């Protein structure tokens, strides 16, 4: 904003062209008796070329409907891709915990564990068994929080192949066919008025 360049203007025009081409798309929310929560979390480690900060994002589904889908550039630099993925997963688990509590206050039964999918095998292993504790001391709070949620049976962390990681659409530039496939899996469909 303080020193715009031609590259910034070109990006703004690209965004506006995308918005103009997708005016007929909308988010579809479907009624369902299911209170199953499923989340996909991902991180783009050191993705910012200027600061090397990572971008995290996640998508949370309640039954078949997408209900939460934030992404943000994190305020810290991550020392490894596993740390970035783990912090992104902790953000998703925090959101899922809040949603679980909200559903319980609304007297809706949340009997099954929330499934959180992550495409980092290292982060999945850390959530179940932080064996290399001295190497992960700098992310200790996230580790304790995640371990507690897994131990309580509220969260089940599973690996998902990158080709099925829907959260990528929030944080990475994807090829057009992959982007359109992931966009449709986020309950975005053509609407008529």
Automatic annotation (TrEMBL):
InterPro entries: DNA/RNA_pol_sf. SUPFAM superfamilies: DNA/RNA polymerases. This is Copia protein. It comes from Aegilops tauschii subsp. strangulata (Goatgrass). It comes from the Eukaryota.
């Amino acid at each position: 904003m303080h020193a715009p360049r031609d590259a910034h203007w070109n990006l703004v025009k690209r965004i506006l062209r995308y918005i103009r081409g997708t005016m007929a798309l909308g988010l579809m929310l479907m009624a369902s008796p299911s209170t199953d929560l499923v989340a996909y979390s991902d991180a783009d480690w050191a993705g910012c070329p200027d600061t090397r900060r990572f971008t995290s994002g996640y998508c949370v589904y309640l039954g078949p409907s997408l209900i939460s889908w934030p992404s943000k550039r994190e305020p810290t630099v991550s020392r490894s891709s596993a740390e970035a993925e783990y912090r992104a997963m902790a953000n998703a688990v925090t959101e899922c915990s809040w949603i679980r509590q909200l559903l319980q206050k609304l007297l809706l039964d949340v009997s099954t564990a929330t499934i959180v999918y992550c495409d980092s095998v290292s982060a999945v292993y850390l959530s179940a068994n932080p064996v290399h504790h001295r190497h992960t001391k700098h992310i200790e709070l996230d580790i304790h929080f995640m371990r507690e949620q897994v131990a309580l049976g509220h969260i089940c962390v599973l690996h998902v192949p990158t080709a099925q990681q829907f959260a990528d659409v929030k944080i990475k530039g994807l090829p057009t066919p992959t982007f359109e496939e992931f966009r449709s899996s986020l309950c975005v469909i053509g609407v008529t008025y």
